[in-house]
Amino acid sequence: MENIILIGFMGSGKTEVGKRLAERLSYTFVDTDDVIEKKVGKSISDIFDEYGEDYFRDLETEVVKELSGIRRHVISTGGGIVINRDNILNLKQMGLVVWLKASPGTIYERVRYGSQRPLLKVDKPLEEIKRLLELREPLYAEADISIEVGGLQVEKIVNIIVGAYKKIAGEEVTQ
Ligand code: S3P
Q1: Strand arrangement, sheet containing 3-7
Q2: CA dihedral 73, 92, 79, 52 (to 10 degrees)
Q3: Residue ranges of the chain with per-residue pLDDT less than 70
Q4: Which helix (H) or strand (E) holds 147?
Q5: Is 53 left (phi over 0), alpha (psi -120 to 50) or beta?
Q6: What pLDDT sits at residue 117?
Q7: Pocket around ligand 1: residues whose beta carbon is below 6 Å from it?
Q8: Which of 152, 156, 25 is nearest to 96 (CA)?
Q9: Taking the model in full, what pTM does it have?
Q10: In angstroms, what is the span from residue 171 Cα to ligand 1's centroid?
Q11: CA torsion 114→88→129→75, rounded to 10°?
């Protein structure tokens, strides 16, 4: 239990919360999408366009495996990481898995302007968010804890996670 892993839909605040959380705990922040972009030398959007979603998902699984030995990290994951069940199982081995849970409306408001997210480049993004959320919610629900993020400030979310982590991981967690 030496890492914190954030899962949840696009726009649920994983990156922002993750960076603040890492600062609070003096942990290192890592984002699986960033690792993939560096590996391939292309943006997520270009990877989807040029090689397709399946190729991206394989890379995602590879990255989770590569990260498996790390400790004292906050890991922010791509919203679809839960699609492959092996990823959930591997992430749970690595630390406390936290689901940042947001409603379709909240997500839509956050991603509607200037989103680079390939899966939401569709005619009716809100409908697509609802559809994907319905498919994924049972998978996100495998997290150790979940937090309804709607209306909560980042600091508040960080406090909740730190509190839960200290309780579960023990008092050796430094702040
Ligand atoms: C995806 C979410 C994105 C990124 C890719 C696919 C998804 O990450 O991995 O566009 O399937 O939900 P964020 O959740 O960080 O936006």
Answers
A1: 28-31, 73-76, 3-7, 96-101, 145-148
A2: 100
A3: 1, 115, 171-175
A4: strand 145-148
A5: alpha
A6: 86
A7: 10, 14, 33, 44, 78-80, 117-119
A8: 25
A9: 0.95
A10: 33
A11: -20
